[in-house]
Amino acid sequence: MILKDYAVVLKTFDYSESSIIAVFLTRRHGKIRVLAKGAKRKKNGISGSFMTGNICEIVFYSNVGRGLQILKEIDCRSSFDDAGKDLKRLSIFQAALEVVDRSVIEQETDEGIFNLVENFFALLPVVADPWAAFFAFETKLLKLTGFFPSILKCDRCGKILAGGGFGINSSNWQVRCEKCITEGMVLISVSASSILIDMENRPMNDIINLKLDRKDRREIGRFLHEIFRAHVEGYKLPSSLGLLKGVN
Ligand SMILES: [Zn+2]
């Protein structure tokens, strides 16, 4: 079957002297692996198409029973060049691609995930704080994949958590208000909690002017990381963020 779809390049690796395998997140067919024959030949004219993060229109031969599809055509519409001079935004952009690659399973066909990635790519160059965009993106991705824990109310006393801080147990996802917190829970302060609740419930673009202070950034980053770690086998911090360790 020949299929046409929009796709973002998540990663690529060498297959042979002239060919590569690209992992795409497509709009309608989920995450797929595609063999691009002759992609490394300059005269082919498509060698520049496989930069990670490119959004392209692809035509491919699909065989559902096979783990590897065959690329027929590729035509890229956008890349992330604009932010190329900003190391922080570029690293966060790459980190988002890594997070998608690790947490989205093949053949999971939720158009919402592709739309989220597209929305995030448009937002990242213009936000006040790229970390806020990254965390809002991670929160929405966890919601779409069904892994975001309920942070509505304390599971011991029933108190609504909005307006207060909370603690969360990252092995069983029990959520507790400040009064009922027990030892070993990940603590989320009042300010980080209200940001998280907004990220969960409001459109992603609402964070466009938000700036996170160091404390909120650490708390929210750790909270989201714990969720990914608990649900995604072999999950580790995106290597792209390692670049920023010296910067922050
Ligand atoms: Zn409580």
Structure description:
This protein has 248 residues and is α+β, with helices and mostly antiparallel strands. It folds into two domains: 78 residues, OB fold (Dihydrolipoamide Acetyltransferase, E2P), CATH 2.40.50; 161 residues, Up-down Bundle (de novo design (two linked rop proteins)). 32% of the residues lie in helices and 21% in strands. The chain has a five-stranded mixed beta barrel with strand order 1-2-3-5-4. A three-stranded antiparallel beta sheet has the order 7-6-8. Helix 2 runs antiparallel to helix 3 and helix 3 packs parallel to helix 5. Bound molecules: zinc ion. The site of zinc ion (ZN) has 8 residues, from strand 7.
Any chance you could write out the topology, listing elements then pairs?
Elements: E1 2-14, E2 20-26, E3 31-36, E4 55-61, E5 68-78, H1 87-103, H2 111-123, H3 130-144, E6 166-168, E7 175-177, E8 186-188, H4 190-201, H5 214-231, H6 239-242
Parallel strand pairs: 3-5
Antiparallel strand pairs: 1-2, 1-4, 2-3, 4-5, 6-7, 6-8
Strand runs, count: 8
CATH architecture verdict of the largest domain: Up-down Bundle
The CATH homology group name of the largest domain: Recombination protein O, C-terminal domain
Shape: elongated
N- to C-terminal distance? 49 Å
Rg (CA only): 20 Å
Number of domains: 2
Helix content: 25-40%
User: Any ligands, ions or cofactors bound here, and which?
Assistant: zinc ion
Keywords for this entry:
alpha+beta; 6 helices; OB fold (Dihydrolipoamide Acetyltransferase, E2P); 3-stranded antiparallel β-sheet; 32% helix; 2 domains; 248 residues; 5-stranded mixed beta barrel; binds zinc ion; de novo design (two linked rop proteins)
